[in-house]
């Protein structure tokens, strides 16, 4: 009996250590500022509004520094246990024109929702943290002085979760200088990201979820089912399916409901990373069953925002 208790305790201890040591997946890209000052920007039309966004594909093709820099810094972080997703290889498979024109449309009404090229990239390369790097290089007779800034963002909410800056001097190449500077300043940066990831595993990943109604639908969010308005029914479902029942109804009318700080599990039952679309799809399937029998369409913007439109696909 004592042996069984010991083995069980040892297994739980090893499981706890393994979970504690698990690191988030990351993707490294040049910062918007770096792309702007090097003219690696492009403009696309987001439903009539002109939006400037970094042209990562052009940067990787034309700039001789960014590839080695990301490779070196990625090595520093993978040595610390992080899992690195290769953005450059994925970008090579994305046609920028197609990405900019990518539109999700209602088959009936023609309504559309545009994703930015970065949103599409994040959706295709699902990662927990997006790290952006920028640097300035000063040359002198004694060598080079390099100042860098690393910023880590939650890929789902775009909230900044960690920042690190530093300066290093030497005669080596820019990639080696930056890798050395990052390594010297890595511990506080790592600690900030670890703190964020522990919170994610404990309290769930944060997303935004909008509920809307097609104008062709005969019902709305005030329609009652079993004596409860549809908005209340949806809130009951969220209460049961969000981590710790955490979500916030920030705005709502008879045809619109905006839920923010919606905390979802990091993974589904099959161990696959959960994103906003996957979570909204669970709600769509729930509403498709009696007593609701509601046809709905899920539309997505990046990893952390989904729109569920009720009444048709």
Descriptive account of the structure:
- The structure is a single chain.
- The longest helix has 20 residues, at about 1-20.
- The strands form five sheets. The chain has a five-stranded mixed sheet. Strands 13-14-10-16-15 form a five-stranded mixed sheet.
- The protein has about 325 residues and is of the alpha+beta class.
- It has eleven helices and 16 strands.
SSE layout and pairing:
Layout: H1 2-21, E1 25-30, H2 32-37, E2 41-46, E3 49-54, H3 56-62, H4 66-79, E4 83-85, H5 87-92, H6 96-101, E5 103-105, E6 112-114, H7 117-124, E7 129-140, E8 143-154, E9 160-170, H8 174-184, H9 186-203, E10 205-213, E11 224-225, E12 228-229, H10 230-241, E13 248-252, E14 256-264, H11 276-287, E15 296-301, E16 305-310
Parallel strand pairs: 1-4, 1-7, 10-16
Antiparallel strand pairs: 2-3, 5-6, 7-8, 8-9, 10-14, 11-12, 13-14, 15-16
Helix pairs in contact: 4-8
Mean pLDDT: 85
Strand content: 25-35%
Helix/strand class: alpha+beta
Total number of strands:
16
Query: What is the CA–CA distance across the termini?
Result: 59 Å
Gross morphology: elongated
Adjacency order of strands in the biggest sheet: 4-1-7-8-9
Low-confidence stretches: 1-21, 99-113
Name the assembly state.
Answer: single chain
Largest sheet: number of strands, sense, barrel closure? 5 strands, mixed
List SSEs in N-to-C order: HEHEEHHEHHEEHEEEHHEEEHEEHEE
